[in-house]
Amino acid sequence: MTTPGQLRQRFVFRSRCWQALVLLLCVSLLAACTGPGGSTPTATRTPVVATAVANSSDPATATALPPTATGLPSPISASATGIPTIATPVGIGSSAEGSNGWVLAGTLAQSRAGHSATLLSDGRLLVVGGERSQSGENSLKSVEVYDPNTNGWTPAATINLGRVAHTATPLPDGRVVVFGGDTFQTSQLPSSTNTLEIYDPVSNTWTPAASSALSRAHHTATVLPDGRILIVGGQSLEAGGKPGQSLAAAEIYDPSTNTWTQAGTLSRGRVGHTATLLPDGRVVISGGETVDSAGTQEVTGSVEIFDARTNTWTTTGDMVVARTGHTATLL
């Protein structure tokens, strides 16, 4: 006769046997899934994201590296559903400036409008002239330089003549040619100038150079492939500071000889136009505003091309829409 204790022992023994059998089956199944020829569910597989490291001068040299090769975590990770999710990039703040790539770049010592801003060959930014306010209070002689390495502004040597609506054109040798513009002080009547000054960033000095035949402001200045500068259009103030006719005459300044030459005449005077250098050395002048002797203003859509090899102007097709104060970007 079997006692209750013996029945209990038999029940425990059989339960442990079944547990061992189930555990053995689970281990066998796991080994079959993860071993050679096995597969894992896609929901638990993390995709490998390669980082491209390329020579900036040759896109063809891009090399795919694993995420850990850069020392930074991959910006893409797998969720439990197997759908990639974007992780927060390292080093990017939550502020609007950080996420959009904009940062404050210091403050100039002098507020100004109508000035010029020219990129120097060493990466700094040269800011010249302008006026104290848009109401026309004094043209400025002050010059400031921004250094992106220090994110700071420093004063530079003052220009000899304060000017606004001038041009500042970098030369291949690193110097900057500042030409024309309007000049005025509170005690004087405003007038346009035909003077030219050259800034040397190495010595931080200004050198007066030859003056052109015409005074003008709001013109364009384009460096030709041979290093000369083409000056086109603009407007010259008349006696009493009243804007005069828009200019059709063009001139060329040669910094190597410090001389000016005439560069023909456009089919019409222009102010607020654009001048775009083409790869073949020609210059496209588009749009602008024509102002006649009576002060009548007409916005134009006409386009003309200057060929420095023949010193001639050619009229080409008009723009669909007449415009002034626009931009023209070479593709």
Secondary-structure map with pairings?
Layout: H1 4-34, E1 51-55, E2 58-65, E3 76-78, E4 84-86, H2 96-100, E5 116-119, E6 125-128, E7 143-147, E8 152-156, E9 167-170, E10 176-179, E11 182-183, E12 191-192, E13 196-200, E14 205-209, E15 220-223, E16 229-232, E17 235-237, E18 243-246, E19 249-254, E20 259-265, E21 274-277, E22 283-286, E23 289-291, E24 297-299, E25 303-307, E26 312-316
Antiparallel strand pairs: 1-2, 3-4, 5-6, 6-7, 7-8, 9-10, 10-13, 11-12, 13-14, 15-16, 16-19, 17-18, 19-20, 21-22, 22-25, 23-24, 25-26
Portion of residues in beta strands equals: 25-35%
Low-pLDDT sequence parts: 37-97
Task: Supply the number of helical segments.
Answer: 2
What does the radius of gyration come to? 36 Å
Q: What distance lies between the first and last C-alpha atoms, to the nearest angstrom?
A: 103 Å
Mean pLDDT: 78
Name the overall outline.
globular
SSE pattern, N- to C-terminal? HEEEEHEEEEEEEEEEEEEEEEEEEEEE
Percentage of residues assigned to helices: 10-25%
Q: Say how many strands there are.
A: 26
Strand arrangement within the widest β-sheet reads 5-6-7-8
| Structural class computed from helices and strand pairing | mainly beta
- Biggest sheet features: 4 strands, antiparallel
